[in-house]
Design a protein that fits this description.
This protein has eight helices and eight strands; from the N terminus they run E-H-E-H-E-H-E-H-E-H-E-H-H-E-E-H. The chain is of the alpha/beta class. Strands 3-2-1-4-5-6-7-8 form an eight-stranded mixed beta sheet, sandwiched between helices.
Length: 274
Amino acid sequence: MEDLTERRTVVVTGASSGIGLAAAVDLAGRGDRVVLVGRDPARLRAAGERVRECCGEQPELFRADFAVLDDVRGLAERLRAAYDRIDVLANNAGAIVLQPVTTVDGFELSMQANHLAPFLLSNLLRDRVGRMVVTASGAHRSGVLDADDLNAVLRRYRPMRAYGTSKQANILFTAEAARRWPEMKAHSFHPGVVRTRFGNDSRLVALGMRLLPFRSPERGAETLVWLANQDPARLVDGGYYADRRLRRPLPKASDPALAARLWAASAKAVGIDA
């Protein structure tokens, strides 16, 4: 009989579709116990069924809406109750928001869903997690992060600027986590331009998704899975990767002083000690 205590536990957020689901299927196929986190109950159940069909085991499902920070706090409590150890936390949940939206917590939606929510979740699970992998993006080049005003992008809102700013925050957060949490390995990555559900509400974006040579979710998930499995001694802690190679993000996403300021601002925003 298989000894389940030897298996890794891998929590994947944004696992209902796209990169997250592709990574979950791959990791489960390698023998990991995968835990799927998603916002929409029906899509989350469908994702769980796909993992079961591919790998023979029903994964645990946890619903949480990252647009609501109380949902994130509740998710952390449920994960802590369920697992003494989380070997890998894949902070993959994210969104491109086509219109300016302020959450119930008072933050621009893409900044909250893509950065503040995973920042909060990671902090609340810090003592349980062995390795953190963060889905960032080359879109950080369009970021205009102001650590003194996390809602700055709401002025003259542009979707890709808001998205890029949240991805800039992802890279800075990962690097700062590596400095602050040496016991937890942390890495971020660019998955490439992936054909996902992003922009489904926009006819123009949907047309582009059909016509342009986007990567499949499976291809986009390759570096996530690789980072989840690679010997940490062969990786740069806090590093940013693309196509399984270490890359140098733009200076605005690799400034230690800005990363420290973002950390302090994020901790204040979500109500935890920096």
